[in-house]
Design goal:
Layout lengths: L1 H21 L3 H13 L11 H19 L2 H6 L1 H26 L5 H10 L5 H11 L3 H29 L6 H32 L3 H21 L4 H14 L6 H91 L7 H7 L6 H11 L8 H9 L5 H8 L1 H4 L8 H31 L4 H28 L1 H24 L6 H4 L2 H10 L1 H24 L5 H26 L1
């Protein structure tokens, strides 16, 4: 078993690596190769526990995605994300359930709804990879990625409810809603507590090896702990990832540089294995189905596949219009309340403003402005962008893992043959969406001319402005140290500081040897190596503080801030490395 598992993992990594090298969609290629391999007579059947697959694959994939997500963009796009991550999954489960029940009544209505809940949540892995490669606008990427962060929680909750009904339990609508509310509250609460603890550890214990290892293990513990408390393990992991990721700029650069390659490798490994498992299992599942309910299962699979394709665009366009109208009414009412507050702070119409701001009268103007920013409408999406979101509904890891875990989820209470039918349909829908939507989504994006050119221009302007501000702050910091260096090291030390400052600012290069003799400079550098290291760290800290302030004021996006932090982190690593060698 261990040899088989390792063979699958190694083969999946090799195929996925080739796909990345050639720029091909890795999930599709891995699935296709595994499917072909499963037809070979010498390839053994690979079996893995579905619950184990879900518990091993889901927490790290969700945590990694949440770490990279922009919390500000996620919060602004929450109306979009909430509609798709909760509403669309529920609607898809209902429509698929009705269609499946009509085609195969012996599944029972609860079993048909269970199938709908399994195929309900799209997986953003493939869509996000395509979107990044083709330059989708940030607002579109946020909706696609944000949806995938919460739709798994909705789907898993529905699966538990319908599985309990299939097993013979009596569950009312209100009980289902209560279970979902409990899952949300407990899951988010557990995740935030874990996030606070992990962030405190990262701030107080600057050892990237230890904190990185804790961060690697904690998503599994948080997921399992939240599930034990009847909460959503998915939301717990997502909440922890969003909290830790949003506060990553406050930690040391060594921790940020350490965790990125680790999580990218984990994502690559898990996704390659899961999609290889899809391809290897598909022939076995289909063979078992065709021996019993072949024709009806084929009809059911294609019907569910068609429903999944059709429901999403209808829901995306209709819910967007409804959501925009509701947002417009809310903002209009709030503006009227603000105007009433500004005219007469004691008026009854201003009560909402007074309650919401919770500030003293001296802070009226800032409080109202802050409250208005919080009520900024969700980002606008053109019909072309909504079309792309509508077609980015590929199913993936969660659908297959839940299908594989059906026997355990239902306590083996489903009639003989029904589990195989549900698993076969889930596999067909997953592979079908990956093939159809995954292969045609790039062409759709190009045909509709959906790009991020405007964002690139705006980011470039913001980047230049922030760089100027941080450069000015860095110059002021270096000037403030000039007097201390001259007093401590004399004229030669002062000249060396000036030359070193010019090199930091990249105004001049390799001119410090002209200002100070080479032998004397080398000796002086050895004497003040620690002070130079402190100087460079202080210079970068000042620039980072300026960047954080610009981000807090809303002058720069979180994505631009992270890009600049990455550049500064690389710069600090190079400076530390150079300083260490110069001190030798």
């Amino acid at each position: 078993m261990q040899a088989e598992f390792f063979s699958v993992l190694a083969g999946a990594v090799i195929v996925a690596g080739i796909a990345r090298w050639r720029g091909w969609p890795a999930p599709l290629l891995v699935t296709a190769v595994a499917l072909i391999a499963s037809l070979l007579p010498f390839v053994p059947e690979v079996e893995i526990d579905g619950e184990l697959l879900l518990a091993l694959a889901l927490p790290p994939l969700l945590y990694s995605a949440a770490l990279d997500a922009s919390f500000v963009s996620f919060r602004r796009s929450m109306p979009h994300v909430r509609r798709l991550g909760v509403g669309l999954v529920a609607v898809t489960a209902l429509v698929v359930g009705v269609v499946a029940w009509l085609i195969m009544p012996d599944l029972t209505f609860a079993g048909a709804l269970l199938l709908g809940a399994i195929v309900g949540p799209p997986d953003a892995v493939s869509a996000a990879a395509i979107g990044r490669r083709l330059g989708l606008p940030r607002r579109v990427m946020t909706v696609i990625s944000g949806e995938s962060l919460i739709n798994d929680a909705t789907s898993l909750t529905l699966v538990r409810v319908f599985a309990a009904i299939v097993a013979g339990a009596t569950v009312t609508v209100w009980q289902g809603i209560g279970e979902f509310a409990l899952a949300v509250v407990v899951g988010v609460g557990v995740g935030l507590v874990a996030g606070v603890v992990l962030h405190a550890l990262r701030m107080r214990f600057d050892d990237p090896v230890v904190t990185g290892t804790v961060g690697l293990l904690l998503p599994f513990g948080v997921y399992a702990g939240a599930e034990q408390l009847y909460g959503s393990g998915v939301l717990a992991v997502v909440a922890m990832g969003l909290f830790v990721g949003s506060r990553a700029p406050l930690t040391s650069y060594t921790q940020r540089q350490q965790e990125k390659p680790i999580w990218r490798s984990v994502d690559f490994l898990l996704e390659a294995f899961v999609f290889a498992y899809i391809g290897l299992q598909l022939p076995t599942v289909l063979d078992a189905v065709f021996q019993s309910n072949g024709l009806r299962t084929i009809l059911l699979a294609f019907a569910v596949f068609a429903v999944v394709l059709v429901v999403r665009p209808i829901f995306v366009f209709l819910s967007y219009r409804w959501g925009r109208g509701w947002q417009w009414l809310r903002v209009k009412r709030w503006k009227h309340a603000v105007e009433a507050f500004q005219r007469d702070p004691q008026s009854s119409r201003a009560r909402a403003v007074r309650i919401a701001r919770k500030k003293s009268a001296a802070d009226d103007e800032n409080a109202v402005a802050s409250a208005m920013r919080k009520r900024t409408p969700e980002p606008l999406l053109s019909w072309q962008e909504r079309a792309v979101i509508s077609w980015a509904g590929m199913r993936g890891v969660v659908t297959l893992a839940m299908a594989a875990a059906l026997p355990d989820i239902t306590n083996h209470s489903m009639p003989e043959g029904h589990v195989e039918v549900l698993v076969a349909v889930a596999f067909v829908v997953t592979v079908g969406t990956l093939l159809l939507q995954g292969l045609t989504l790039p062409a759709l994006i190009r045909r509709l001319h959906v790009s991020n050119d405007d964002e690139k221009d705006a980011d470039a302007r913001a980047l230049e402005r922030v760089r100027d501000e941080s450069r000015k702050a860095g110059i002021e910091y270096l000037r403030s140290r000039q007097g201390q260096w001259e007093q401590a090291h004399g004229t030669e030390g002062s000249e060396m500081l000036k030359a070193f400052s010019r090199r930091l600012l990249r105004v001049e290069r390799d001119t410090d040897r002209e200002a100070v003799g080479a032998e004397r400079e080398a000796a002086l550098r050895r004497d003040v190596a620690d002070e130079i290291a402190e100087l460079t760290r202080g210079w970068l800290a000042v620039r980072r503080s300026v960047l954080l302030e610009e981000f807090r004021l809303g002058h720069v996006s979180e994505e631009v801030m992270r890009d600049l932090f990455d550049a500064m982190d690389a710069e600090e690593l190079a400076l530390d490395y150079r300083g260490a060698h110069q001190a030798e």
